Amino acid sequence: MKTKAIPDVIRAAARTLADHKARNVVILDLRTVHDAVDFFIIASGTSDTHVKSSARRVVEALASNDVTLHHVEGLPQGRWVLLDYVDFVVHVFHPALREFYQLERLWADAPSQTLAEEAG
Fold it and tell me: Does residue 119 lie within any of the structural domains?
């Protein structure tokens, strides 16, 4: 079975996280395993402040391209920020919480793509 292309908006959100030095940026394609959402983008910040600023960068980048944010959770705390864009959800985790919740393992049936981290 051939996987459909990942939409540009998903790539833009993931690239924004990578450009802001988020770690281990992963796109999970849930279209074949879940009916409510098409994609998860999962990334880790290095601190609560980095988690919050990375999430804010995604919101700003997508808003400048007229992509509407439906719901936000966790931004004031910065431990796990969830950005709900209806068709896709961006999860930016503090590393300890990402390890604890292990969304990639929970959704292991979904095809995934990891963005290469920039050297430096």
Answer: no
Q: 3-17, 37-51, 76-90: lowest mean pLDDT where? A: 3-17
CATH code of the domain in which 93 resides: 3.30.460.10
| Overall number of domains in the chain | 1
Is 1 among the domain residues? no
Q: What pTM does this model have? A: 0.91
Domain residues for 72? 8-114
Among the residue ranges 4-8, 28-32, 79-83, 90-94, the one predicted with the least confidence is 4-8
Cα–chain center distance at 43: 5
